[in-house]
């Protein structure tokens, strides 16, 4: 991680801890106050847009709890698909049957 990314991250955490809205200007002013000179304004605007409308404290507290949504979405997609998985399994079984060594004249002990 570059110094610009670290400085922007720390500035965003400071603002979130104080309960202040995270904006590019506020991030830039904190970085300047810390006497970090090599941070381009693009970094602060990227961080401000990424964190806009989000509760940073809530994001930090719920880092490991985001895994439950993906299986539910996958189950809904599978239910909507209908007979597609059954057709795929049947096609796979047919391919396995066609590629058998016995059909080509090869055996385990030949």
From TrEMBL:
Subunit architecture: P1 and P2 exist as dimers at the large ribosomal subunit.
Organism field: Didymosphaeria variabile
Family: Belongs to the eukaryotic ribosomal protein P1/P2 family.
Top-level taxon in the UniProt lineage: Eukaryota
Record's compositionally biased regions (Low complexity): 70-84
Gene Ontology CC terms: cytosolic large ribosomal subunit
One Pfam assignment: Ribosomal_60s
BP term (GO), one: translational elongation
HAMAP family: Ribosomal_L12_arch
Role played: Plays an important role in the elongation step of protein synthesis.
Organism phylogeny: Eukaryota, Fungi, Dikarya, Ascomycota, Pezizomycotina
Annotated region (Disordered), positions in chain: 67-110
Acidic residues: compositionally biased ranges: 95-104
PANTHER family: 60S ACIDIC RIBOSOMAL PROTEIN P1, LARGE RIBOSOMAL SUBUNIT PROTEIN P1
Secretion signal, residue range per the UniProt entry: none
Gene Ontology MF terms in the entry: protein kinase activator activity; ribonucleoprotein complex binding; structural constituent of ribosome
Alphabetized UniProt keyword annotations: Ribonucleoprotein, Ribosomal protein
Name the record gives this protein: Large ribosomal subunit protein P1
């Amino acid at each position: 991680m570059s110094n610009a990314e670290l400085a922007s991250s720390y500035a965003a955490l400071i603002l979130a801890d104080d309960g202040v809205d995270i904006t590019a200007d506020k991030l830039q002013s904190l970085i300047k106050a810390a006497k970090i000179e090599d941070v381009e304004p693009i970094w602060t605007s990227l961080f401000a847009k990424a964190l806009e409308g989000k509760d940073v404290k809530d994001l930090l507290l719920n880092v490991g709890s985001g895994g439950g949504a993906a299986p539910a979405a996958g189950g809904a997609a599978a239910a909507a698909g209908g007979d597609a998985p059954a057709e795929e399994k049947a096609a796979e079984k047919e391919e396995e049957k066609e590629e058998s060594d016995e059909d080509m004249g090869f055996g385990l002990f030949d």
